[in-house]
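Researcher: Predict the fold of FtsX-like permease family protein.
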Amino acid sequence: MIGSIAWRNVWRSKSRSLIMIAAIAIGLFAGVFTMAFMRGAVDAKIESATKSELAHLQVHAPRFLENNNIEYSISDAREMLSKIETLHGVVAASRRLIAEPFVMAAHGTGGGKILGVDVENEKRVTDIWQHLVDGTYLEKNTRMPPVVIGQKMAKKLQLRVGSKINVQMVDIDGNLSSKGYRVSGIYKTTNTGYDETHLFVSYNDLQTQLGVKENTAHEIVVLLEDGTNAPVIKPEIQNIAGNNDVQTWKEISPEMSLLTDSMDQYMYVFILIILLALCFGIINTMLMAVLERVKEIGMLMAVGMNKRKVFVMIILESIMLTFSGGFLGILLGTLVTKFFETTPIDVSMFSEGLEKYGFGSQIYTSLQPNTLFTIGFLVIVTGILSAIYPARKALKLNPAEATRSE
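Model: Structure tokens for FtsX-like permease family protein follow.
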């Protein structure tokens, strides 16, 4: 009974109700789509970082990450790899040698990090070979050992496939070691900072130049079937790694962890700001509706409707108004988001700036079901809170005075 009266009251002023419903729908559509867009951008950045750069877990010798000192290495890398690959949930693992070289080319110099990798194993763990824009992935076609470099470094040093570079570094004995490499491939990821500083050579070539023993590694990278299981599988790998350090990708890259953990909080703050703005609009609409019906409300009280029912009626009117707009906004936002889950949004006009921070120029939206439930709950709460003040105004009416008002 109260519900049906409240529903009829909502549509007494159709134009005002429709405008309010449209405002709520547009606001929530913008909120849902923005959340899905930002979540998609962050998910893509994390996927790119774990597939191309970090993998899901890494093993290092103690103190190696403090300054990348090549003396701190894992001595039994091959045996450790074999044991790690037998664990449930592990897709592949690969060993790496790492050094910080000085790169000299005909048109400039540069620095960064050079990684010596087992080519076939590395292909199973990371996808740099799939990001080649020119050449091949460490295929030796000349007498000089091959090197794969990023497109950003290639542009900076004016290099192309077939160019020669000279790589200098300090070997395990503390001597300066210099070796020539031939560019066999150029890759491009969504992170230009990574492309500018990371070079890939074969494990054997870097092992020879550094003078380290066979079967040693500075880093073991592990790819899992599901990256969210990294904290679960970490203790099992730690048992195999002994005194070596085992870290998840979130521990290795705390800025990525912060981005992931804080994204939902930022987005809910964004939604709350939208709902807060809509809240004032709903209060204004409901207050106008109450003031226009002072005489009617007074008559309802005079014929026996108690204050609790009047309060519930106005609260229901506000919830119906808010829920109608909220439902339309969430539905529209969900449909548009679903479309862009399979059709990328092209933001290539901002690619230069985005790629500096590791974001791609094509973004797929991503919307979690729990996000929709949370937004729906917030919409209903907003409707209730927005109706409290107008409802209290109605409760303060004196039935005798209200029935005499015009």
